[in-house]
Specification:
- This is DUF3046 domain-containing protein.
- Pfam families: DUF3046.
- It comes from Cellulomonas persica.
- The protein has one domain.
- The chain contains 5 helices and 2 strands, in the order H-H-E-E-H-H-H.
- 56% of the residues lie in helices and 5% in strands.
- Helix 1 crosses helix 2.
- The protein has a two-stranded antiparallel ribbon.
Length: 77
């Protein structure tokens, strides 16, 4: 996931203003008790940060990817 995709999902799933506020202020245990913004600044993978943020906010898997075109393909068998 690219940083631009992370921010698109923040806006789509969490809302523009509210999402950016959560990224800046919500301390997430799975990110070593850092905010998502701090984790990104420290070089953490945006996909890892996104999943940690979603887990912290109890966002179900069905809503995490916003529009269906961003939903990852299921693993091939």
């Amino acid at each position: 996931m690219r940083y631009s995709e992370f921010w698109e999902l923040v806006e789509e799933v969490l809302g523009s203003a509210h999402g950016r506020e959560l990224v800046a202020t919500l301390v997430v245990g799975a990110l070593d008790n850092r905010t998502a913004a701090a984790a990104l600044e420290d070089g953490q993978d945006p996909r890892t940060v996104w999943h940690a943020l979603c887990d912290e906010l109890d966002i179900p898997e069905s809503r995490r990817w916003g529009a269906d075109q961003r939903r990852p393909a299921p693993p091939r068998r």
